[in-house]
Write a structure and sequence with these properties.
Helix 1 crosses helix 5. By secondary structure, the protein is α+β, with helices and mostly antiparallel strands. It has 5 helices and 6 strands. It is 33% helix and 22% strand.
Length: 140
């Protein structure tokens, strides 16, 4: 599925809440647990700040978008046209790999029912597979 309109980077192990966490959640958890090296921490902090400064945060637009009661299993996907966002994920993937956290890239034309959308991303409620992989193919 080479030109799918949506891209997601996620772990390969289910989160305690039942879904496969995305690359940002996984890296944020490593930072929260104090497991990043100084260099990794600098990258993570600067990269998160860059994303926050340059792109909408779905929870700032709709505080209920990730509410576990209202939208259990909601996950975000990049739009494939958001090249700069997708390109910057590489640094997060490097950190995760250094800590033995496996991730995969998914591409989909129908990742689920869209509950939030902006010019760069969607947040969806997966349909079918609760892992958020409905209509998705894995690519390395």
């Amino acid at each position: 599925m080479h030109n799918a309109p949506y891209i997601r980077f996620q772990g390969t192990v289910r989160h305690p809440r039942g879904h496969f966490p995305g690359v940002f959640v996984l890296t944020n958890e490593l930072a929260r647990d104090g497991r990043l090296t100084e260099e990794q921490h600098r990258f993570w902090r600067a990269a998160n700040d860059w994303y926050d400064a340059n792109y909408p945060n779905p929870t700032h637009v709709d505080p209920e978008v990730y509410d576990r009661e209202i939208h259990p299993g909601a996950v975000a996907w990049f739009k494939s046209t958001a090249h700069e966002l997708v390109e910057r994920v590489g640094g997060y993937l490097e950190i995760l790999a250094a800590h033995g956290v496996d991730c995969r890239r998914l591409e989909s034309s129908s990742p689920g029912r869209i509950i939030y959308e902006d010019a760069y991303q969607v947040v969806v409620m997966p349909t079918g597979d609760p892992a958020g992989e409905s209509g998705a193919s894995s690519r390395t």
